[in-house]
Design brief:
With about 190 residues, the protein is mostly helical. The protein has six helices and no strands.
Amino acid sequence: MNFAQTFLIAVALSMDALAVSIASGITLKKSKLKNAFKIAFFFGIFQLFMPLLGAAAGVFLKDLLSEIDHWVIFAILLVVGGKMIYEAFIIKEEEEKLDPTNLKTLIFLSIATSIDAFAVGISLSLLSGNIYLAVTIIGIVTFILCFIGVMIGDFIGHFFEEKIEAFGGIILVGIGIKILLEHLFSKGVS
């Protein structure tokens, strides 16, 4: 997998965390810079380690899946991306305001926004490439986007929140289709 694909995956995976960061920026009343760093750090670390854990699980499955790995990658990215697109457009009830800087809340939000990264980590283990570089890029991109998201949360509000998540889902589905098509056309349709 090349750098551009890895970067697009990183951007797509960070969309949930970015949406939460923007919402957090809206609710924060003081110490935005400090809190932006704290929120971005947690999201970035979890987005770095979850695909690494998924990749470790994928290593055990690699031999079992070697003949159908392109279909597995496609299915995982399709499901994760489709879920993100679906969740972006479902009507959500007004959620109780949580303090996004509370440690328990921050850990919960970090886990919730990085579950998809675990599944993508399984896909990454099935592709050739440096998994450590990939997860580092994912963590750094997530950190940067979440930091920016908290800082601009006041300005753009909830309007873009759902659209950002849908955009991330579209990117993942597109990459899944690209990987599947590349494999099918490089080996003849199988």
